[in-house]
Fold this protein.
Amino acid sequence: MTRTPLADVACSIARATDLFGDAWTALIMRDVLVGIRRFDELAEDLGLSRKVLAARLARLVEEGVLTRERYQDSPPREHYVATEKGRDLLPVLLALTAWGDKWYAGEAGPPTRIHHDTCGQDVTPVMSCSHCRGTLTVGDVTALPGPGGRVGPGTRLMGPLIAARGEAPGERAGAAREPAEPPESR
């Protein structure tokens, strides 16, 4: 079955999942970010065919998410290292982990603990506002038009819905709005 490319859809989720939308790519990035970086180790850990792994790694390198770095000269050996673009996937993976832990952990509990080295505590990742640090939930965020938005494949209904929201009276685009509830003290 041929996959429909999403790179031209005016939606950041569509564009990101065009690269990152299959489970193997997410698991490859999980492994690289925790320190499993050699091809043979990735293949062993994931139980993935070498052909599929090679294709996914090549795409991640091509997209600038990973880079190949030599770690040995004789014989020449390389491993995969996350670029800044790749390291920026950590919050995505942490959010997916938190969601999976909540809904799919099973009776034994989550398979992994996330430990924040700075404060020394195990944590549950949360998405927070970059301005007030309040937790973001579906009940207190609104999608508004952005400069790259357009109606087209993948946004035929969403595009007009968001465009109709436009700017609230007396509010400029991107202006901070008061949160629905005061943020928790941190």
Q: What stands out?
A: The mean pLDDT is 86.
